[in-house]
Fold this sequence. Notes:
Blueprint: H1 6-11, E1 19-22, E2 26-30, E3 38-44, H2 59-76, E4 83-86, H3 90-93, E5 102-106
Antiparallel strand pairs: 1-2, 2-3, 3-5, 4-5
The structure holds adenosine monophosphate (AMP).
Adenosine monophosphate (AMP) is lined by residues 6, 17, 29, 31-33, 41, 88, 94-97.
Amino acid sequence: MAEETIFRKIINQEISTELLYQDQFVTAFRDISPKAPTHILIIPNKLIATANDIEIEDEALIGKLYTVAKQLAKQEGIAESGYRLIMNCNQDGGQEVFHIHLHLLGGKPLGRMICS
Ligand code: AMP
């Protein structure tokens, strides 16, 4: 059984953050430590710890993360200039919070996909 993370408190609005989107399935808010002028996290309200834990029944929910991301990119004015959507998984992927989230990054040229 996966353990709840700080993101549950954000979903429940128990800690203050700039909520950009919320419905019964998905919540989006600004990353506390932005790596680009736009850095938004889009998360399912349901706890799924890592990409490895996504089940067939979650397919529509995962799709919704992307449609919300697209909408927010437009809202942020970066849809045309471009952006990057990333989901990190486990240690080598650099995952720190074990509640899956899509990073929406943009607002500047992001360079190579992976910096070694
Ligand atoms: P990851 O390394 O993919 O697990 O990303 C976790 C992200 O969550 C990092 O970019 C953190 O800056 C961000 N983060 C952690 N705590 C908070 C918080 N309370 N509010 C907003 N973003 C957070």
